[in-house]
Amino acid sequence: MSKQKRLVLLSLLTGLGLMIIKFVAYFLTASNAIFTDAAESIVNVIASSFAFYSIYLAAQPKDNNHPYGHGKVEFFSVFLEGGLIFIAGSIILVKGFYNIFFPSTLSNLEEGIGLVSVTALINFVIGFYIMKRGRALGSLTLEADGKHLQVDAYSTIGLVVGLILMKLTGLKWIDIAISFALGSFILYNGYKLLRQSVGGLMDESDVDLVKEVVQVLQENRHTDWIDIHNLRVQRYGNELHVDCHLTLPNYYSLTKVHDEISILDKIVNTKMSIETEFFIHADPCLPECCSYCQVKDCPIRSKEFTVEIEWQVENVTANRKHFLS
User: Fold this and answer.
1) Which run of H or of E encompasses 281?
2) How far is CA 306 from each of CA 38, 185, 302, rounded to the nearest angstrom?
3) Which of 18, 26, 320, 325 has the most neighbouring CB atoms within 10 Å?
4) Mapped to the 3 state alphabet, what secondary structure does 213-259 carry?
5) What is the pTM for the complete model shown?
């Protein structure tokens, strides 16, 4: 079993166990706030179940029908998780409104507080571990799953503080107020996951990822690489797909062009924390490139070198050579 699958299985089993504990706490106390927390745990179990399948599917090799692999299923997994969180938040708010007019009788608060406090601690530790490992493995599904567990832990901590306050003051309306606050918090986090997944499914550019690629190129550039432009970066699961135009001296042989492209490809794959597939279009240099070309002893130079152009997101992603900027 792969590392990703083991981590998702850990999340699934943890979520299932904590869900049972939270519902026990709810039946002991009849607390609307604890029901809120228990309802979100159902989402954790369903989302982790689908995450397990999506990790399996994303790991499948490329085929004729999926030449870029199956990694985009992770965006769908994040979409499902965000949607379920959003639905859970909506249900929690509806139940909160219901209990304004039909309040429930609370009991055994000490036992309920103790049980959900334990679940908060376990959720935070497991969520932090899964999210950290997900980033290291380049898995959006694991990152989302770990973040969801941490969000669950934060909401449970808020719930415990509110229940303790209610116990001390005797103000029963605090229970409903907590459910409204947590329901709104859960809705917001569901929206953020939905936004992230839709952006990924529509190939929205990841600005931080593009910056990382450009920084690697700038720090490891060769004098032969006159400019790089029309750079595009897309993420498919735990792989990156990068394409760009690389300007090289126009007198280079096809073999030399191939060697330079291979060097660039190797550098990016070595320096980036995620496997990268490069598609590079080689452009011949033009006389206008001479002013910023640093090739020594160039036999066709028509202008002196005058300025070094630093590769930044703005000029590397533009679909034009740098002298046209």
Assistant:
1) strand 275-284
2) 66, 55, 12
3) 18
4) HHHHHHHCCCCCCCEEEEEEEEEECCEEEEEEEEEECCCCCHHHHHH
5) 0.57
> Domains of the chain, with CATH numbers?
3-201 (1.20.1510.10), 207-324 (3.30.70.1350)
Q: Name the token pair of 101.
A: 């007019």
Residue predicted with more confidence, 254 or 155: 254
CA angle centred on 211, ends 140 and 311, rounded to 5°: 155
- Taking residue 276's Cβ as centre, other Cβ atoms within 10 Å add up to 18
Q: How far is CA 15 from CA 28, 104, 152, in A?
A: 20, 27, 10
Could you tell me what percentage of the chain is helix, strand and coil, using 3-state DSSP and rounding each to the nearest 5?
Answer: 65, 10, 25
* Tokens coding 284: 């011949």
- Mean pLDDT of the region 175-192: 79
pLDDT in tens, 73-129: 777 777 877 787 787 778 777 777 776 776 666 678 788 888 889 988 998 999 899
Fill in the DSSP letter of residue 70: S
